[in-house]
Amino acid sequence: MGYSTASTPNSHRADSLTIGSYFVSFHIQRHYQRLRHHWMICKESKPDELVQWGHASTRSLAKIAACNALEKLLSSPRTSEGHEEQLHHNRT
């Protein structure tokens, strides 16, 4: 499992980690007068292909939502083509 911290122009901080064959990243972005905590899950083999994403009002809610989504992805059955079924946007 890997972990890194990086900055992007539109966000305050970006953290990422690798779990199994998935890459999970967290970004904090100012949205009006508040911060929005985004999370994104990609396949490690295809980091430019978004599998699932969402945002929450706090860091801990974003982590919980990402962990729940990741658990579903890791336990989901494979389709006949050998790919996981794609899940879409979750908003917490």
Structural description of this entry:
The protein starts with a strand and ends with a strand. The chain is an alpha+beta fold and 92 residues long. It has a six-stranded mixed beta sheet, with helices on one face. The protein has one helix at 59-75, and strands at 3-6, 14-19, 22-31, 34-43, 46-56, 90-91. 18% of the residues lie in helices and 47% in strands. The longest helix is centred in the last third of the chain and has 17 residues, at 59-75. The protein is globular and about 40 Å long.
Index terms:
92 residues; alpha+beta; 6-stranded mixed beta sheet; 47% strand; globular; disordered N terminus; disordered C terminus
Compact description:
The protein has 92 residues and is an alpha+beta fold. It has one helix and six strands, in the order E-E-E-E-E-H-E.
| Total count of helical runs of at least 4 residues | 1
- Tell me the distance between the termini: 25 Å
| Sequence of strands across the biggest β-sheet | 1-2-3-4-5-6
Detail the poorly predicted runs: 1-12, 79-90
- How many β-strand runs? 6
Main β-sheet description: 6 strands, mixed
The amount of helix comes to: 10-25%
Q: Which percent range describes the beta-strand content?
A: over 45%
Q: Which class best fits the helix and strand makeup?
A: alpha+beta
* Radius of gyration over C-alpha positions, nearest whole angstrom: 13 Å
The overall pLDDT, averaged over residues, is: 76
Q: List the secondary-structure elements in sequence, H or E.
A: EEEEEHE
The coarse overall form would be: globular
